[in-house]
Amino acid sequence: DPNWKEGYHRNREALLTPEELEKFRQLEKNRRYRRSINSIA
């Protein structure tokens, strides 16, 4: 269930420090970026 997953990630993010949160966001951004390149290629 995607909604469950969304809530789970929100809860996990709440436990992270701002530094970890920033690192996490960068990873997500990179992953999304790579995925969009792959879908174009």
Automatic annotation (TrEMBL):
This is Uncharacterized protein. It comes from marine sediment metagenome. The lineage of its organism: unclassified sequences, metagenomes, ecological metagenomes.
